Each structure stands twice: as structure tokens, then as C-alpha cells.
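Dear colleague,

As promised, here are the two records you asked about, laid out in our usual form so they can be pasted straight into your sheet.

NAME FIELD: protein one
SEQUENCE, THEN STRUCTURE:
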Amino acid sequence: MASSPYFPIAVLFVAALGFGLAPLGLAWLWQKVYSPAKPNLVKNSIYECGLVSKGDAWVQFRSAYYLYAIMFLIFDVEAVFLLPFAVAFTGLGVAACVSMLVFVLLLVEGLAWAWAKGVLTWT
């Protein structure tokens, strides 16, 4: 068994599985030993605010919020890509500056498109 080429992979798989499951097992054991369930009226009552819920928990979600989230992610990723460029700006050549200019122009084009489509209007 030890001469198999897959033996080290199997050992690492078992170690990774044990590394992930051991804390879960220890937490479960700790909970069973030191935190026995004692349900009572206070523990089963509504938490903190004390308001009894009314109606169904189902609410309609406006899909326009999805567009706001996507726009935020686009410009958040822009900041992630612009930061390393800004840090290393003095050591970069003309080609890097031109490629970053193209990147920023594409983002400005996306912003203009979103503005023209009315994505940025809060209604």
C-alpha cells in the first residue's frame, strides 16, 4: 500500500478531512458535555426586540437593487486594480500607462452606459 503513487495523496486527503472535522467534532462534544439543553419559557421567547412577527416572512425584492450591487462591484474592482498601478506608477513604462488608460476609459464607458440606461437613478 505504501508503494502506491496515490498513497501520499490519500494521506493528505485524510489529514485535510481530519483537520476540518476535528474542530467541529470537538465543538459538538463540548456543547453536549458543558452546555446541556434546558429549554424554558425565557429561552424560547422572542430575542431582544420583543416584537411578535406578523404575516409571512416572504417579501418581494426589487431587482433594481441587483443593478446597484453590480455597479458597486464593478467600481470596487476598479479600485482594486488601480491601487497597485498607483503604487508602482513611477517605475512603469509608457505601455503600462496606456493600458491603464484604456482600462479607465472602458470603465468610464460603462459608467456612461449605466447613466444613459437609467441604472443610477434611485426610484
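NAME FIELD: protein two
SEQUENCE, THEN STRUCTURE:
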Amino acid sequence: MAEHKDYEKLVAEAKKRITEISPTNAAAKMKSDSAVIVDVREREEWDEGHIPGAIHLSRGMIELDIEEKVPDPETMIICHCGGGGRSALAAESLQKMGYKKVRSMAGGFRAWKALGLPTAK
């Protein structure tokens, strides 16, 4: 497998500037309607399985479409991807756009599934 040193460095830098949240905590916040979960994975990944009630905005489109889906910058947005890298980058980007309560789900969808939290197709 190819080395992804620059990507990993970018993700590590982003993680210093964002707040990560555990899948269990993310599930609780979603259940209490205090947060919106945004899946930043690609469409094929979403189709294979996703978090019920999540919004799908792929990493390439999130900045373009977020204001339409989540107009209030005070809404808590929990981004997630497959493993936690793309969501960290997306979270950092949303913070730069003025969203005040952005989180990235640590471990991504893999961690969510590993904990036996609900998934949908």
C-alpha cells in the first residue's frame, strides 16, 4: 500500500484544531436531538451502510452544501468518515466557515460498527 505521509500529517494537524467525540457520545447526542451527524464518505461507502438519521455530504461537497442542510452555525455537527481522517479535515473546514460546534467522530464508521451501534442500508 502506498505511503500517505503528507495526508496523515494534514490529518494530524487538523486534529489539533478540532474536537473529537467518541461514537458512543455521538450516538447519545444524536438520540437527544442535540446534534446532526454528517457522513462525509463517498456515495458507494454510504450505500454499503451508514448511521440511521445521518446526512450524507461527501467530503468533496460538504462546504458547498452544508449551509443548505444545516443553516444554523450554532447547531452541533458531528462529522464522520470511515476511520476519522476525512472527517477531521471536514470538521476543520466547517469551523473555518463559522460553525461553532463541530466535532469529528473518533475512529469513524468502523469504530461505530465495532461498538455494535445501529446501522442502516
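A couple of things worth noting about protein two: The helical segments are 5-17, 23-31, 43-48, 62-69, 85-96, 108-114. DSSP finds six helices and five strands in the chain.

Best,
R.
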